C-alpha cells in the first residue's frame, strides 16, 4: 500500500507512514530516529520494556523539563543547553528526523514541543501511540536500544524562543494586548476554580483574563482533543471543540494548563497547520501561584459572579484529593 508523503511541519503521523519510512519509501526519511517517551528511568518504563516499536530508543520527560517543582524551575522547560545535552546523548541534532510516541498523549506532546523549541527541525508523533502501531499489525521488540551520541547540535538553542511565553510576558500581554488570548487547557472544574486539579497545588483559580480552551476532563487527560480511537483530532476537530470559546484562530494564542503538558497538544496541531501566532505559557497555574500579587479570577469570567482577587488572597484547601 502506497502511503502519501507528509510535510516537514506535519507532526501527527500514522503508523503506516512510519513503517513506510522504515521501509525506505518516504523520500528524505530514510534515516529516522524513533523514541518512546516516558517519565523516569528506562528500567521503570513498563510499556517500553513490554514491547516497543523496533529500533526505538527511550527518552525521558525529565530531559526537557524541571522535575523538582522548585520556584526556580516550576516544572518549566529546562535551560536550552541542558535539553540539547540530553538530545546529543541520544544522537539528536537539529537535522535528525525524530519520531516520538508514548503512553501519555500530553507527555509526548511536551517532548515534541521542547525539541521544536530547542531547534530540531522535523519532529513527528505516531498518532495513537503503541496501540495504534500494534492495531496496524506491526511487530514490537523488547531489546533496549540506545542512540549514537552526537557532538554538535547544529544551531544555537533555543532556535525558537517565540514558541515559549514566560510568566512576566503572559501577565503583561493580558494587561495590555486586546488581541492576546491566554487559553486555559484545563478541565471545567479547574477553570472555574473549584479545584486546582493537583494534590500539590492548594489554591484554585486562573490568571485574570484567561479564557477556556476546553480539552480536558481532569488534570491528567486531553480527552476533548482525542478521537474515539485515542488519536489526536485534526484541525477541524479542534475548531469544533472551540466553536463557542472566547477566542478565534486570528487571535495571538498562548496555551497553558497546570504545568505545561496539556497545553502542548493544541500548540502542535496549530503548528502543523501553519499557524505562527501561537505559544505555550510554560509556567501555567503552578508558577502563577508563586506570586501573591498576581491577579486571579475565580469562576466564569463572563458571569457577574466571577470573583476577581489576587493569589495571596485565595483560600486554601482546593488541592485535588
Textual characterization of the structure:
The chain has two domains: 12-159, Rhodanese-like domain (Oxidized Rhodanese, domain 1, 3-Layer(aba) Sandwich), CATH 3.40.250.10; 162-313, Rhodanese-like domain (Oxidized Rhodanese, domain 1, 3-Layer(aba) Sandwich). It has helices at residues 15-22, 46-50, 80-90, 105-118, 129-135, 167-176, 188-191, 235-241, 264-272, 284-288; strands at 12-13, 32-38, 57-60, 97-102, 122-126, 164-165, 180-184, 206-207, 211-212, 252-256, 278-281, 295-298, 307-310. Helix 4 (105-118) packs across helix 9. Strands 1-5-4-2-3 form a five-stranded parallel sheet. The protein has ten helices and 13 strands. Helices cover 25% and strands 16% of the residues. The protein has 321 residues and is α/β, with parallel strands linked by helices.
Lay out the secondary structure.
Layout: E1 12-13, H1 15-22, E2 32-38, H2 46-50, E3 57-60, H3 80-90, E4 97-102, H4 105-118, E5 122-126, H5 129-135, E6 164-165, H6 167-176, E7 180-184, H7 188-191, E8 206-207, E9 211-212, H8 235-241, E10 252-256, H9 264-272, E11 278-281, H10 284-288, E12 295-298, E13 307-310
Parallel strand pairs: 1-5, 2-3, 2-4, 4-5, 6-11, 7-9, 7-10, 10-11
Antiparallel strand pairs: 8-12, 12-13
Helix pairs in contact: 4-9
| CATH architecture descriptor of the largest domain | 3-Layer(aba) Sandwich
Strand runs, count: 13
Overall number of structural domains:
2
Radius of gyration: 20 Å
* CATH third-tier fold name of the largest domain: Oxidized Rhodanese, domain 1
CATH C-level label of the largest domain: Alpha Beta
Amino acid at each position: 500500500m502506497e502511503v502519501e508523503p507528509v510535510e516537514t511541519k506535519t507532526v501527527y503521523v500514522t503508523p503506516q507512514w512510519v513503517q513506510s519510512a522504515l521501509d525506505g519509501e518516504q523520500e528524505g526519511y530514510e534515516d529516522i530516529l524513533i523514541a518512546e517517551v516516558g517519565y523516569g528511568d528506562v528500567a521503570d518504563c513498563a510499556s517500553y520494556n513490554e514491547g516497543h516499536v523496533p529500533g526505538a530508543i527511550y527518552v525521558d520527560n525529565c530531559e526537557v523539563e524541571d522535575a523538582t517543582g522548585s520556584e526556580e524551575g516550576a516544572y518549566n522547560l529546562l535551560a536550552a543547553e541542558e535539553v540539547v545535552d540530553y538530545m546529543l546523548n541520544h544522537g539528536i541534532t537539529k537535522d535528525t528526523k525524530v519520531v516520538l510516541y508514548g503512553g501519555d498523549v500530553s507527555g509526548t506532546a511536551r517532548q515534541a514541543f521542547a525539541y521544536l523549541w530547542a531547534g530540531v527541525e522535523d519532529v513527528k508523533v505516531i498518532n495513537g501511540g503503541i496501540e495504534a502501531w500494534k492495531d496496524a499489525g506491526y511487530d514490537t521488540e523488547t531489546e533496549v536500544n540506545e542512540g549514537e551520541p552526537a557532538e554538535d547540535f547544529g544551531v544555537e538553542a533555543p532556535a525558537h524562543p517565540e514558541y515559549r511565553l514566560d510568566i512576566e510576558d503572559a501577565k503583561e500581554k493580558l494587561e495590555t494586548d486586546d488581541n492576546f488570548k491566554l487559553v486555559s487547557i484545563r478541565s471545567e472544574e479547574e477553570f472555574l476554580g473549584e479545584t486546582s486539579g493537583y494534590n500539590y497545588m492548594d489554591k484554585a483559580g486562573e490568571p485574570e483574563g484567561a479564557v477556556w480552551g476546553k480539552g480536558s476532563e481532569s488534570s491528567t487527560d486531553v480527552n476533548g482533543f482525542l478521537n474515539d480511537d485515542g488519536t489526536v483530532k485534526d484541525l477541524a476537530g479542534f475548531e469544533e471543540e472551540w466553536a463557542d470559546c472566547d477566542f478565534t484562530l486570528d487571535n495571538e494564542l498562548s496555551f497553558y494548563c497546570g504545568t505545561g503538558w496539556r497545553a502542548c497538544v493544541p500548540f502542535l496541531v496549530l503548528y502543523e497547520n501553519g499557524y505562527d501566532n501561537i505559544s505555550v505559557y510554560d509556567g501555567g497555574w503552578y508558577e502563577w501561584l508563586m506570586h501573591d500579587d498576581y491577579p486571579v479570577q475565580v469562576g466564569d469570567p463572563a458571569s457577574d459572579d466571577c470573583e476577581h482577587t489576587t493569589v495571596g488572597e485565595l483560600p486554601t484547601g482546593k488541592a485535588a484529593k
